Amino acid sequence: MLQNDYRNIKLSCFLINNSFFKISFPLFYITRNTYSAFSCRKKTIRCKLWQKPGFKELKARTVWLGCPEKCEEKYPKNAIKNQKYNIFTFVPGVLYQQFKFFLNLYFLVVACSQFVPSLKIGYLYTYWAPLGFVLAVTMVREAVDEVRRYQRDKEMNSQLYSKLTVRGLLLRSSNQRIPADMIFLRTSEKNGACFIRTDQLDGETDWKLKVAVGCTQRLPALGDLFSISAYVYAQRPQLDIHSFEGNFTREDTDPQIHESLSIENTLWASTVVASGTVIGVVIYTGKETRSVLNTSFAKNKVGLLDLELNRLTKALFLAQVVLSVVMVALQGFVGPWFRNLFRFVVLFSYIIPISLRVNLDMGKSAYGWMIMKDENIPGTVVRTSTIPEELGRLVYLLTDKTGTLTQNEMIFKRLHLGTVSYGTDTMDEIQSHIIHTNGATPSRKTQTSGPKVRKSVSSRIHEAVKAIALCHNVTPVYESHGGVNGETESAEADQDFSDDNRTYQASSPDEVALVRWTESVGLTLVNRDLTSLQLKTPSGQILSFYILQIFPFTSESKRMGIIVREESTGDITFYMKGADVAMASIVQYNDWLEEECGNMAREGLRTLVVAKKSLSEEQYQDFENRYNQAKLSIHDRGLKVAAVVESLEREMELLCLTGVEDQLQADVRPTLELLRNAGIKIWMLTGDKLETATCIAKSSHLVSRNQHIHVFKPVSNRGEAHLELNAFRRKHDCALVISGDSLEVCLRYYEHEFVELACQCPAVVCCRCSPTQKAQIVRLLQQHTANRTCAIGDGGNDVSMIQAADCGIGIEGKEGKQASLAADFSITQFKHIGRLLMVHGRNSYKRSAALGQFVMHRGMIISTMQAVFSSIFYFASVPLYQGFLMVGYATIYTMFPVFSLVLDQDVKPEMALLYPELYKDLTKGRSLSFKTFLIWVLISVYQGGILMYGALVLFESEFVHVVAISFTALILTELLMVALTIRTWHWLMVVAEFFSLGCYLASLAFLNEYFDLSFITTWPFLWKVSAITLVSCLPLYIIKYLKRKFSPPSYSKLSS
């Protein structure tokens, strides 16, 4: 019927006046069997956004259907944007990000000072060339990253219908995402409702039931939507994804029709229609949608190592100023001492090497390339090339559950009847019992065949399976075979009950797993509507049941129930299933339920207790009267309804205990164990239910088997939060499970106390978390612990958390690419995070620490030589080395060997994965600290002093010999120091050493301006250089040997 309606609309499009068909907020038509999109400019659904002139404020709006004369307001473009800059802000933005670092700002000031003649020392290019090169490298890297983000956004927006706010009708097949926030107007389902999947919005795996607006659902034909005069009033856009207030009004009737709209009438962006057809009117687009409002903006992330190096450069600058003041003081502050002071500052400027940023930035790019080329973690993408060292400094890992730790695929694993238990390998026995029971006795009242024991077991199994097949909210859905004519009547006639043609939809994957299991053992759910359901037995017989009442599952009750009347016998039965904590007091006394629930929970299975109670006609009529009366109550309606239902929940017959497994991602358990052994504390943040989250925490071994779990009781005010925090404080070494609502109350009144207690837990599970709360938890850990955080997720609801963390990792899976595109690193499987952190995180941090300190050593040693030179020659502010010697020293003479440190590694990858405990040392930051920095300062002072004093002592006649001896010894010392620093040799390191040495020797022929070529070819020159180099390096080699022999680091013990 819907297909015919739509065909009529297409025909009428050509007959309607153009002005009648301008769509600014389009209707959406999403159907199972068609996929097409076209632009239709002949109908107007106008919207009005009330806002102050010149002030962009989120306001309520009125969305009109079919009124072209209504004024049109502009709304945000329906597009996602992960870019940091635009074409106008790119250059200022990148320059700001660079010059906010003290290092770059300092060199900008020094370079600018060279335009002042009295302050000029050497050539301009020796200052501006390195600075320009640094900025050019940075801008190119940022530009590449920005272009990649733009291309990814463009690709995603082409799928999201970024031109949605223009004009058009849109048709899409099911199982595709809704691209904007809509009000649900009409559906092809008879009951006026449909299911949607919201896992990418709130992280919940349950399917949500949505209801169409009654007025538009009752219209005789779809085309009537274009002829009515109606509008939707929608509240202003807001963060809360679980609430909505609005009204639907139809004006062309007498009296006017008014309907209130709530959350059940909405279809938020990023949700997926599970089946059927939905038609809606868009109310929010782009940055006003719920999903985008719950997403934080991308920020420029700065690594901890960069901040540490920034602090060290400030210390170096302070030392430089002090040294300059000492020089001027030793001069006696004579003459223009202030100018001399600034000249000394410029003269010692090499104490802070500008090449530090170049080397580190190029190193980061090299680490990113190595990560993406690692065959052990295929598909990994580095999207932010500025923070690879963060992977080696992490203390907290915050992970999503659905799609990250689990596959969200439920499998029925266990059925326990008290005296007998059935697993996956014995399900065929259950099937034979079902076949025997149904084949021998169509009616359950006349079972007479078979042995007594056999009969007892068979009847118990049949009752348990039938209860599982009846007690749920699952609806079977069949594909239509009506063909292109779309005739609904013939399509329904063509529907069959074959397994291939049937799919199930429900509010929980657990429910579907149970119904699929009953189908596998012979009792199949073939049809269901609001008032009845039918089961098919193995013999093909259809058992019909009337649905009298349904009591849905809630997080408070932790159980669901259904009352049915069997058509053939008229028997009324109340079936109920739920969590063991809720059902234990409801079922009759037994001695096995608690023990078996514990056994299944330890196996990581999600347990459900199933029970039943037979009701007489009089009992049910009495219950129905009291139940209907309670539902009409104005005051305390919920409490009264619950009390009536609880009157039935007494002494119920325990039928069985079921165990369902949520399939974990590959190698989740060993990966979590690896991370735990590495000293990383893992927090699981999920939008799912408390019971589900707790079960996954156990099955994934996030919480070890012998570890106690403290479930934080629901709190709503300051007093309750205080009492519960005191109870939690008395627990030791236990995992914490807390809901989002309770967390919000605790953070409002006792933020510091809660975070302090939670950080002491080996594991924390936060359930029912909104996307905003996930990001808030990340920021709390950053503020209160000052430790580095990593967030990992796979859905759109994880984007805020990923962007807020110091290091964001997205998993590119079947649920989409939103998290992957917004993350700093993208992986394809959760298990890859182990190698990413243990191997690449370790190498990136260790290499950058060594590279940064060595580059600073290279600057400090030449500054020490300059200080010695100036102090001997009457504290003159004259440079020791000028022009190309300084440029060559920082580039071709030493750059390649120093940069080859990015290939160094202290332990092999296999060793790093085998002993994850090595990772704990990285989080302490010992590879780059004030202690290691001070050691390098002492080495630089020692070597600089030896090189300069040695050259001054050994030179004989001309000053130019001092320059030749000291500079050559300096180059050799740097090459030998690189060799001393390297822990694992790579063939490229050897090439870099000899290449740099060859470049220096070859350039001597062209340096006659600085060197006496006749002197450097003599034996005195060679032995003097060799002697000075030996004295400067040999003691350090001896110290290194003794240290490795008597106090070796932990990694060297493992290697040996």
TrEMBL record:
One of its GO terms (biological process) is retrograde vesicle-mediated transport, Golgi to endoplasmic reticulum. Its main location: Golgi. It catalyses: ATP + H2O + phospholipidSide 1 = ADP + phosphate + phospholipidSide 2. It is found in: Golgi apparatus, trans-Golgi network membrane; Membrane. Residues 821-1048 form the P-type ATPase C-terminal domain. The keyword Nucleotide-binding applies. The chain crosses the membrane at residues 125-144, 315-335, 341-360, 855-875, 881-903, 933-953, 959-980, 987-1007, 1019-1039. This is Phospholipid-transporting ATPase. It comes from Amphiprion ocellaris (Clown anemonefish). The lineage of its organism: Eukaryota, Metazoa, Chordata, Craniata, Vertebrata.
